[in-house]
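Hey,

Quick one before I head out. I ran the complex with fe (ii) ion overnight. Inputs first:
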Amino acid sequence: MKVFELVETFGRAGESDHPMNAVREILESLRGRVDVDKLLSYIPGTGGNPRQVFYRSPQLTLLKVCFPVGRRTPPHTHGTWAAILQLSGEEKNTLYDCEHGRLRRTGEATLTPGTVLPLAAGAVHVVECRGDAPSLGLHVYGGDILVLPRRVWDPETLEEHPLDWTLYERFAQAASKAERAPLG
Ligand SMILES: [Fe+2]
Protein backbone atom coordinates (compact mmCIF):
# COMPACT_ATOMS: atom_id res chain seq x y z
CA MET A 1 0.00 0.00 0.00
CA LYS A 2 1.13 3.55 -0.81
CA VAL A 3 0.37 6.64 1.29
CA PHE A 4 -2.03 8.00 -1.35
CA GLU A 5 -3.99 4.74 -1.23
CA LEU A 6 -4.27 4.96 2.56
CA VAL A 7 -5.47 8.56 2.23
CA GLU A 8 -8.01 7.61 -0.47
CA THR A 9 -9.40 4.75 1.62
CA PHE A 10 -9.98 7.00 4.61
CA GLY A 11 -11.11 9.92 2.43
CA ARG A 12 -13.93 7.77 1.02
CA ALA A 13 -14.89 6.64 4.54
CA GLY A 14 -15.12 10.28 5.57
CA GLU A 15 -17.71 10.90 2.85
CA SER A 16 -19.85 7.86 3.82
CA ASP A 17 -23.13 7.92 5.78
CA HIS A 18 -21.50 6.55 8.94
CA PRO A 19 -17.91 7.82 8.80
CA MET A 20 -16.90 6.81 12.34
CA ASN A 21 -17.96 3.19 11.80
CA ALA A 22 -16.33 3.11 8.37
CA VAL A 23 -13.06 4.50 9.76
CA ARG A 24 -13.08 2.02 12.62
CA GLU A 25 -13.52 -0.87 10.18
CA ILE A 26 -10.58 0.34 8.09
CA LEU A 27 -8.34 0.71 11.15
CA GLU A 28 -9.23 -2.80 12.27
CA SER A 29 -8.56 -4.19 8.79
CA LEU A 30 -5.14 -2.47 8.64
CA ARG A 31 -3.70 -4.03 11.77
CA GLY A 32 -1.44 -6.92 11.02
CA ARG A 33 -2.05 -6.54 7.27
CA VAL A 34 -0.27 -3.29 6.38
CA ASP A 35 2.89 -1.97 7.99
CA VAL A 36 1.42 1.47 8.61
CA ASP A 37 4.31 2.32 10.94
CA LYS A 38 6.78 1.89 8.08
CA LEU A 39 4.49 3.58 5.55
CA LEU A 40 4.30 6.71 7.73
CA SER A 41 7.93 6.69 8.85
CA TYR A 42 8.52 9.95 6.91
CA ILE A 43 6.33 11.83 9.44
CA PRO A 44 8.05 12.49 12.79
CA GLY A 45 4.72 12.83 14.64
CA THR A 46 5.99 15.49 17.04
CA GLY A 47 5.96 19.29 16.90
CA GLY A 48 2.20 19.86 17.13
CA ASN A 49 -0.81 18.97 15.00
CA PRO A 50 0.25 20.95 11.86
CA ARG A 51 3.40 18.80 11.59
CA GLN A 52 1.53 15.56 12.29
CA VAL A 53 -1.24 15.96 9.70
CA PHE A 54 -0.85 14.17 6.37
CA TYR A 55 -4.42 14.72 5.12
CA ARG A 56 -7.11 17.17 6.11
CA SER A 57 -10.55 18.00 4.75
CA PRO A 58 -13.76 19.38 6.32
CA GLN A 59 -14.77 15.71 6.89
CA LEU A 60 -11.58 14.07 8.12
CA THR A 61 -8.06 14.59 9.39
CA LEU A 62 -5.33 11.94 9.34
CA LEU A 63 -2.33 12.34 11.62
CA LYS A 64 0.58 10.30 12.79
CA VAL A 65 1.12 11.17 16.43
CA CYS A 66 4.21 10.45 18.52
CA PHE A 67 4.19 10.82 22.31
CA PRO A 68 7.82 10.77 23.49
CA VAL A 69 8.88 8.83 26.59
CA GLY A 70 7.65 10.65 29.71
CA ARG A 71 5.07 12.75 27.87
CA ARG A 72 1.58 13.17 29.28
CA THR A 73 -1.10 15.41 27.77
CA PRO A 74 -3.51 17.59 29.73
CA PRO A 75 -7.20 16.56 29.56
CA HIS A 76 -8.53 17.68 26.16
CA THR A 77 -11.26 17.18 23.56
CA HIS A 78 -10.94 16.92 19.78
CA GLY A 79 -14.08 18.84 18.78
CA THR A 80 -15.37 15.74 17.00
CA TRP A 81 -15.18 11.93 17.14
CA ALA A 82 -11.81 10.26 16.84
CA ALA A 83 -10.32 6.80 16.35
CA ILE A 84 -6.74 5.72 17.08
CA LEU A 85 -4.77 2.75 15.79
CA GLN A 86 -1.75 2.13 18.00
CA LEU A 87 1.29 1.52 15.77
CA SER A 88 4.12 0.97 18.25
CA GLY A 89 4.97 1.53 21.89
CA GLU A 90 2.39 1.64 24.62
CA GLU A 91 0.14 4.43 25.77
CA LYS A 92 -2.35 4.82 28.57
CA ASN A 93 -5.55 6.73 27.93
CA THR A 94 -7.44 8.06 30.94
CA LEU A 95 -11.02 8.81 29.96
CA TYR A 96 -13.37 11.46 31.34
CA ASP A 97 -16.70 13.04 30.73
CA CYS A 98 -17.61 16.60 31.47
CA GLU A 99 -20.87 17.59 33.11
CA HIS A 100 -21.66 21.22 33.95
CA GLY A 101 -17.99 22.09 33.41
CA ARG A 102 -16.70 19.43 35.86
CA LEU A 103 -14.47 16.59 34.77
CA ARG A 104 -15.37 13.08 35.92
CA ARG A 105 -13.03 10.14 35.42
CA THR A 106 -14.88 7.31 33.65
CA GLY A 107 -12.15 4.74 32.98
CA GLU A 108 -8.88 3.99 31.26
CA ALA A 109 -7.54 2.04 28.30
CA THR A 110 -3.99 0.92 27.62
CA LEU A 111 -3.14 0.70 23.93
CA THR A 112 -0.57 -1.75 22.58
CA PRO A 113 0.33 -2.22 18.89
CA GLY A 114 -2.83 -3.13 16.94
CA THR A 115 -5.31 -1.72 19.48
CA VAL A 116 -8.07 0.48 17.99
CA LEU A 117 -9.58 3.05 20.38
CA PRO A 118 -12.73 4.89 19.25
CA LEU A 119 -13.52 8.18 21.05
CA ALA A 120 -17.03 9.64 20.76
CA ALA A 121 -17.51 13.33 20.02
CA GLY A 122 -17.24 15.16 23.33
CA ALA A 123 -14.97 12.51 24.89
CA VAL A 124 -12.21 13.93 27.09
CA HIS A 125 -8.93 12.10 27.52
CA VAL A 126 -5.39 12.23 28.83
CA VAL A 127 -2.71 10.30 26.94
CA GLU A 128 0.60 9.22 28.41
CA CYS A 129 3.48 7.28 26.92
CA ARG A 130 4.21 4.15 28.95
CA GLY A 131 7.46 2.24 28.97
CA ASP A 132 10.82 3.19 27.47
CA ALA A 133 9.85 3.65 23.79
CA PRO A 134 7.83 6.44 22.15
CA SER A 135 4.13 5.79 21.57
CA LEU A 136 3.19 6.05 17.88
CA GLY A 137 -0.36 6.03 16.56
CA LEU A 138 -2.44 6.71 13.48
CA HIS A 139 -5.13 9.17 14.59
CA VAL A 140 -8.27 9.84 12.56
CA TYR A 141 -10.58 12.74 13.45
CA GLY A 142 -14.07 13.37 12.08
CA GLY A 143 -13.45 16.91 10.85
CA ASP A 144 -10.71 19.42 10.23
CA ILE A 145 -8.71 19.23 13.45
CA LEU A 146 -6.89 22.49 12.70
CA VAL A 147 -10.09 24.59 12.78
CA LEU A 148 -12.48 22.71 15.10
CA PRO A 149 -13.08 24.39 18.46
CA ARG A 150 -11.49 22.26 21.17
CA ARG A 151 -11.15 22.39 24.95
CA VAL A 152 -8.30 21.77 27.34
CA TRP A 153 -8.16 21.54 31.13
CA ASP A 154 -5.43 22.75 33.47
CA PRO A 155 -4.12 19.44 34.90
CA GLU A 156 -3.53 21.05 38.30
CA THR A 157 -6.66 23.15 38.85
CA LEU A 158 -9.00 21.31 36.39
CA GLU A 159 -10.08 24.71 35.07
CA GLU A 160 -11.44 24.48 31.51
CA HIS A 161 -10.12 26.64 28.64
CA PRO A 162 -10.56 26.93 24.88
CA LEU A 163 -7.63 25.00 23.36
CA ASP A 164 -4.74 27.25 22.47
CA TRP A 165 -1.42 25.59 21.58
CA THR A 166 0.76 27.76 23.82
CA LEU A 167 -1.51 26.98 26.75
CA TYR A 168 -1.70 23.30 25.75
CA GLU A 169 2.08 22.98 25.79
CA ARG A 170 2.34 24.66 29.20
CA PHE A 171 -0.30 22.28 30.56
CA ALA A 172 1.43 19.27 28.92
CA GLN A 173 4.71 20.19 30.66
CA ALA A 174 2.90 20.32 34.02
CA ALA A 175 0.96 17.11 33.28
CA SER A 176 4.18 15.27 32.37
CA LYS A 177 5.76 16.18 35.72
CA ALA A 178 2.77 14.92 37.73
CA GLU A 179 2.65 11.48 39.36
CA ARG A 180 -0.50 10.48 37.49
CA ALA A 181 -3.34 11.74 35.32
CA PRO A 182 -5.85 14.05 37.06
CA LEU A 183 -8.44 12.33 39.27
CA GLY A 184 -6.49 9.07 38.90
FE1 LIG B 1 -6.30 13.45 22.07
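Residues 76, 78, 125, 127 surround fe (ii) ion (CB under 6 Å).

Talk tomorrow,
K.
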